[in-house]
Amino acid sequence: MTKDTTITRRALLQCAALSSVAAISPAAAFAAADAPYPSRPVTWVIPFAPGGATGRLSLLICERLSLRLGQPFVLEHRPGAGGNVATRSVASAAPDGYTILATSTANVINASRDPAPTTAEGNDDLVPVAGLARMPLLLLVSRQLPVKTLPEFLAHARANPGKLTVGSAGPGTVQLLSADLFRTLGGITWSVVHYRGSGPALTDLASGHIHAMFDNTAAAVDLIRSGKVRALAVSTRERAAAFPELPPVADVLPSFETSGFYGVAAPHGTPQAIVDLLNREINAALADAEINRHFAELGATPITGDSGVYAATYRAEVMHWRKLVAAQASPTR
């Protein structure tokens, strides 16, 4: 487990189920009355290695929560299994508001593989708290690769079947699914290299150890602006506000469209009063002008609304990815 010692203050979490409101036990009610929440540090679990979009967005929000709620929010990275290691650990944590999960598109994709109807976070052991942001992905290439445009990259990949290496943030992640969709629609072949998050993959891309990858604007922005990697296109049908010069992949591959989706969840049984408190505070943070400025620099669009709105958005996102996963010509590697 990797711990990010950057501390942000005060707490997020305790919640009840979203679709079916769980009853608060007398013991929980007594504890809440005895020690107003939060009364100690909160662990904010990030399912990937440091350096990715989930961590960067989480840090901005946690700093605001710490100041507003008066307790540290400790960012703790628990990478592995495409986000499942962290998800399982939070799902099994005490529903007391002191362990919270930063969710991402990986949770949505994992839920999309389950044929059963999706409820809340797509996992009966978690309840939705709030949305954080949506953002496009970028097709990134090593500057050592002799291409400067999307058509040049496609031509190069087709002329060198199986010779390119593409980075993945892990199985079931939006980075890998985007790469697989691109590979299928582009009629190309390459080798996938899996990492425990996009941070390590980006490091290898910048050093030329891999040739290409898809990643979120928030994770890649610094490397792009410092000239260490080259961005060729954006994954959404609209151009990204942070990189308006980049064309959509759909300009060349019309069926292509993906994006990153981020939010917050808590263990099932967390009192609704705590869910509501966290939701209000996260929404207040998302409305802050300074945080909005940082989000815009990272290419992120805030997702606001109560936990019910977030749950509905989450379910819609699962259905979207379910269609994309089913449409793949070959299984994700």
Overview of this protein structure:
The protein has 333 residues and is an alpha/beta fold. The protein folds into 2 domains: 2-134 and 260-327, D-Maltodextrin-Binding Protein, domain 2; 137-251, Periplasmic binding protein-like II (D-Maltodextrin-Binding Protein, domain 2). Helix content is 39%, strand content 21%. The chain has helices spanning 26-34, 53-69, 84-91, 105-112, 150-159, 174-186, 198-206, 217-225, 272-287, 289-298, 307-327; strands at 2-9, 42-46, 72-77, 99-103, 126-135, 137-142, 165-168, 191-194, 212-216, 229-234, 260-267, 301-302. A 7-stranded mixed sheet has the order 1-3-2-4-11-5-12, sandwiched between helices. α2 (53-69) links the parallel β2 and β3 (72-77). The radius of gyration is 20 Å and the shape is globular.
Write a brief caption for the model.
The chain has 333 residues and is an alpha/beta fold.
Number of domains: 2
What is the beta-strand fraction?
A: 15-25%
Low-confidence stretches: 1-33, 117-122, 329-333
Outline = globular
Features:
alpha/beta; D-Maltodextrin-Binding Protein, domain 2; 2 domains; disordered N terminus; five-stranded mixed beta sheet; 333 residues
Question: How would the blueprint of this fold be written?
Answer:
Elements: E1 2-9, H1 26-34, E2 42-46, H2 53-69, E3 72-77, H3 84-91, E4 99-103, H4 105-112, E5 126-135, E6 137-142, H5 150-159, E7 165-168, H6 174-186, E8 191-194, H7 198-206, E9 212-216, H8 217-225, E10 229-234, E11 260-267, H9 272-287, H10 289-298, E12 301-302, H11 307-327
Parallel strand pairs: 2-3, 2-4, 7-8, 7-9
Antiparallel strand pairs: 1-3, 4-11, 5-11, 5-12, 6-9, 6-10
Signal peptide: 1-31
Pfam families: TctC
Family: Belongs to the UPF0065 (bug) family.
